[in-house]
Design brief:
Blueprint (H helix, E strand, L loop, with lengths): L1 H10 L6 H15 L1 H9 L3 H11 L3 H15 L5 H30 L1 H4 L1 H22 L3 H4 L8
Length: about 150
């Protein structure tokens, strides 16, 4: 699902600022991550669950592409490698923590309840994205400070 959506998203010319697109992508991810939980809870069908997982994955690549666009846009000139490395390291750390949390949830709460972990993670990401967008769009003392590494 993620691969197909990434290929399709790559052919589009998205409009609007990346921070708004990022919030839309994370919102889609939070909404679509509920599908496997609903499929497991309501139907119990492995075929329906497989379809729900396929559709849920479709928000992943567009969200990652848009997030990397934000990293590229906000990283100081000459430090893009560091910015991308930090972003990918955070992404891989998040995947590892999510896998551990999902495994714990399945072992202690049950297989169906384990599908709640990605929903919680996506909702947390949405709240953080909204908070970050509000913080960067509000002018204040933060925006008056020089960037790290620049002469004041």
């Amino acid at each position: 699902g993620s691969c197909a959506a990434g290929l399709l998203y790559g052919t589009l010319k998205p409009s609007g600022p990346p921070h708004r697109r990022h919030i839309l992508c994370v919102t889609a991810m939070a909404a679509l991550m509920t599908l496997p939980l609903l499929a497991a809870t309501l139907t119990g069908s492995l075929l329906v669950l497989a379809g729900a997982l396929l559709v849920a994955g479709m928000a992943t690549a567009p969200t990652m592409i848009t997030g990397m666009t934000l990293v590229q846009e906000r990283t100081p000139e000459g430090r893009l490698n560091e910015g991308m490395t930090l972003a990918v390291t955070g992404l891989l750390g998040g995947i590892a923590c999510g896998a551990a949390a999902g495994g714990w949830a399945v072992e202690h709460l049950g297989a169906t309840e384990g599908y709640g972990v990605p929903v919680a993670a996506a909702c947390c990401a949405l709240l953080l994205s909204i908070a970050q967008a509000c913080a960067t769009s509000t002018p204040g003392p933060r925006s008056a400070r020089p960037r790290a590494g620049s002469a004041a």
